[in-house]
Automatic annotation (TrEMBL):
Gene Ontology biological process terms in this record: intra-Golgi vesicle-mediated transport; protein transport
GO cellular component: Golgi membrane; Golgi transport complex
Family note: Belongs to the COG8 family.
Protein name, UniProt field: Conserved oligomeric Golgi complex subunit 8
Top-rank taxon: Eukaryota
Keyword hit for Protein transport: yes
Keywords from the UniProt entry: Golgi apparatus, Membrane, Protein transport, Transport
Topology in the lipid bilayer: Peripheral membrane protein
Main location: Golgi
Annotated source species: Thamnocephalis sphaerospora
Record's subcellular location: Golgi apparatus membrane
């Protein structure tokens, strides 16, 4: 090979070597740049992870408290501390919503932020399992019992707080999936379904149908059904679980101040119950009309049961008078949120006043009869027998309490001084006058005619009892003389006191207005009972067969 050819080959080899070196240099530069970028990315991620770890170490107590929330919520639900469980659940829900909103706003999320989001979501899901499962099941079971108004209103508020908001499409899909699946019964679907409409149906069906059916199917007077329900409510309120929740029901009201607090609780919680039910029924429109009627009737009957419970356990006229005044002041707000029960409650108050007055008169007469039969220390001297006998004969000839006396009575009659020297008769007269004075001050005007008739019958019965004592003894004995003084002198005087206090007719018959009002109240109560029966029958048919539009 010639010399020029060798030189040309060497030049080509050198050029190729230089080109390869340039390519190698470029590749090394790219690799170095990529290495730098990779190291920078890893270093940045490391810094972020280190920063997140340092934050986690600094907030370790908060993270531990967050991880403990599901267990604490479960313990609160199991221990019936439901308000605390709901507060913690609402806190986790707020945290989740805040983290979700922040995640949507940020383009680049650190590993620590992602871990916090995942942690809060898991805690919220665990808390929701306890709230939307066990707590709702316990609330429905508690609402199925006959609870007092404040307890019912409080549980309804807790039920609303426990519901998780769902969109309309999710609610429809959930209901269709659970309610129309062959493997799941309708009752189980109602319990486990967290939707508002299904839980409302579950509450109304499981909590109150049995209560109303017992009250509606009971024969006889409507007050018997109310008394039975009041007894059931009383037995339920004695539960240890409710004592802490209802401190105003731990002891029966024994003073006007405690009674005022008791009525304040009713006045405050009954409208709250109405608002809760109205909020539950608002999305259902006209389809919820039977539920509204059922809720209003339940509020009215529960209120009447509570008041009857107080009336049945008191013998103080001032207590009942304060109750009557408070009910009159409270009936306005209650009538706006439920059925107007003032007329029926007023009749119950009148019956309680008649019962208390009759009991006081009976106890005074029984005490007098026992003392006359077993004690003779109060008898006057034998020298007074003739003069007292003349008083008895004159009074018997002039007036007898058993006569049908429609004639005018003297108004200036006074108790005989000789008779007032006998301690038993003096105590009887004082008890009678004290009773009449209490009735004059505390008894409503509408109850006076009935009180007049009842007390007149009690006075005649007392005279008959003492007349029997008189007939069992010799007519000339001191005992017969003093008993005759009661029958022919003291009893007419007490009857005139009764007439003057009540300003009614001598026979004590109730006026037509009272009878008409009583019949109107009974008719209203019976009509309401029939209406509720029709509503429940139609509702039960729909629950069993399904709406007519779906058939």
């Amino acid at each position: 090979m010639s010399a020029p050819a060798v030189v040309l080959d060497q030049d080509n080899a050198l050029a190729n070597t230089l080109a390869a070196f340039e390519r190698l240099t470029t590749a090394c530069g790219d690799a170095s740049q990529r290495a730098k970028e990779l190291c920078g990315s890893r270093y940045s991620r490391y810094c972020k992870e280190r920063h997140g770890t340092l934050i986690a170490v600094d907030r370790r107590e908060d993270i531990d408290a967050l991880l403990e929330m599901p267990r604490v919520i479960h313990a609160c639900v199991a221990g019936d501390r439901w308000d605390g469980a709901l507060s913690l659940y609402e806190q986790t829900r707020a945290w989740q919503q805040q983290v979700t909103h922040s995640t949507r706003q940020e383009d680049h999320i650190s590993t620590a932020s992602t871990g916090a989001t995942t942690l809060i979501s898991r805690v919220h899901r665990a808390a929701a399992e306890h709230i939307e499962g066990e707590l709702i099941r316990r609330l429905i079971a508690r609402l199925s019992a006959t609870a007092a108004l404040p307890e019912l209103a409080r549980h309804l508020g807790q039920l609303r707080r426990a519901w998780h908001p769902m969109s309309a499409s999710q609610e429809t899909a959930f209901v269709e999936e659970d309610m129309h699946t062959q493997s799941v019964s309708a009752d189980d679907a109602l319990i486990h379904c967290p939707t508002e409409s299904a839980l409302l149906s579950a509450f109304l069906m499981r909590a109150r149908i049995s209560w109303w059916r017992r009250a509606v199917d009971r024969q006889g007077d409507g007050r018997a059904a109310a008394a039975a329900v009041a007894a059931a409510a009383t037995a339920h309120s004695k539960d240890a679980e409710l004592d802490a929740a209802m401190p105003w029901r731990e002891t029966e009201p024994t003073s006007p101040e405690q009674l005022a607090q008791w009525l304040d609780a009713l006045r405050l919680h009954t409208p709250e119950l109405h608002r809760q039910l109205a909020a539950l029924l608002a999305p259902h429109g006209a389809q919820a009309e039977p539920y509204r009627n059922l809720a209003a009737a339940y509020v009215a009957s529960t209120l009447r049961s509570e008041l009857q419970h107080v009336l049945q356990n008191t013998n103080d006229l001032t207590f009942v008078a304060t109750l009557a005044t408070s009910v009159a002041d409270t009936s306005g707000p209650l009538a706006r949120c439920a059925t107007d029960v003032h007329t029926v409650i007023q009749h119950d108050i009148h019956l309680a006043i008649v019962r208390i007055a009759t009991g006081r008169a009976e106890r005074a007469t029984v005490a007098l009869t026992e003392e006359l039969q077993h004690n003779t220390a109060w008898l006057p001297a034998k020298a007074e027998t003739a003069r007292l006998l003349e008083v008895v004969n004159a009074a018997a000839a002039a007036k007898n309490v058993h006569a049908s006396d429609d004639a005018e009575q003297p108004t200036s009659m006074a108790p005989p001084e000789d008779l007032m020297q006998a301690a038993p008769f003096a105590r009887l007269l004082n008890s009678w006058l004290a009773l009449l004075n209490d009735l004059r001050w505390y008894a409503p005007i509408g109850v006076l005619p009935s009180l007049s008739a009842v007390l007149a019958r009690e006075l005649c019965r007392s005279s008959d009892t003492l007349r029997t004592v008189l007939q069992a003894r010799e007519s000339t004995s001191l005992e017969s003389v003093v008993v005759g003084l009661f029958v022919h002198v003291l009893a007419p005087y007490m009857w005139q006191c009764l007439q003057r206090v009540f300003a009614c007719s001598s026979n004590g018959a109730p006026p037509p207005g009272w009878t008409a009002a009583h019949k109107a109240a009974q008719h209203q109560q019976l009509e309401s009972k029939h209406k509720m029966t029709a509503i429940l029958s139609a509702w039960l048919r729909e629950m069993c067969t399904g709406p007519s539009t779906q058939e």
